[in-house]
Amino acid sequence: MMKARISTRILRRFSVLALLAVFLAVPFFSMPAQSAAQTHNEQVAEDFILTLADKAIASLTAPNTPRNERVKRFRALFNEYFAVRGIGKWVLGRHWKKASEAQKKEYLHLFEDLMVVSYVERFSRYAGETLKVVKTLPHKNKNITTVYAELTQPGGASKIRMEWRVTTKGEKIKITDVTVEGISMGSTLKSDFGSIIRREGNSVEGLIVALREKTTSLKVSTN
């Protein structure tokens, strides 16, 4: 049986994602005034992203922060602001139902670990990028709002389009997906994980082994 590996394409394609929250804290330029027609959920979603940004810039970008402390802080923010379980479950798709409880537990732990160890170091490389919130739009599902933005690199050399999908359920609000230049983080992970499972004979355990190996490798390489 072919040994499965987590493709580094996941990490390369979304290397910018771990920095997106940080960029939002930079002073805005040409930010449009809030429309009178903007719904409560739209304003809540925008404020939610800005609050995350404030926390990220304050706690993760100091150059002398020890790595273990940066990891701890990033993990806390990731769990507070992202629907980690919901994203992980959606990414696994139909295979979630056939996984045992033990497999589900380990998979979610490894999924969180992969996101944290993949992106935490990039917060120390913040270089003054700026971001403009372009608009917020409600989804046909009234609980979902998309925050559209443009990331501009220093000197205005290039712009990156991104979208944050924010879901509100009662008092709970979470980021459920991030799209960069039209490419969805969740959809890309789902495709990559699905490919590994298929190569492993539709085995969830094969994916778990691959995740375990990848996270271990990343932890070693960044220590």
List the helices and strands and how they pair.
Blueprint: H1 8-13, H2 17-23, H3 40-60, H4 67-81, H5 84-92, H6 95-98, H7 101-119, E1 130-138, E2 144-152, E3 159-169, E4 172-180, E5 183-184, H8 185-199, H9 204-222
Antiparallel strand pairs: 1-2, 2-3, 3-4, 4-5
**Count of separate structural domains:** 1
Largest sheet: 5 strands, antiparallel
The total of helices stands at: 9
Low-confidence stretches: 7-37
Number of strands: 5
Q: What proportion strand?
A: 15-25%
Instruction: State the CATH superfamily name.
Output: Tgt2/MlaC
**Mean pLDDT, rounded to whole units?**
79
Gross morphology: globular
Strand order of the largest sheet: 1-2-3-4-5
Rg on CA atoms, Å:
18 Å
Indicate the CATH architecture. Roll
Order of helices and strands: HHHHHHHEEEEEHH
Note down, in words, how this protein is organized.
With 223 residues, the chain is α+β, with helices and mostly antiparallel strands. It has a single domain (8-212), classed as Tgt2/MlaC (Nuclear Transport Factor 2, Chain: A, Roll). The chain is built from nine helices and five strands. Strands 1-2-3-4-5 form a five-stranded antiparallel sheet. Strand 4 and strand 5 form a beta hairpin. The longest helix has 21 residues, at 40-60.
Quick structural overview:
With 223 residues, the protein is of the alpha+beta class. It has nine helices and five strands, in the order αααααααβββββαα. The longest helix is centred in the first third of the chain and has 21 residues, at 40-60.
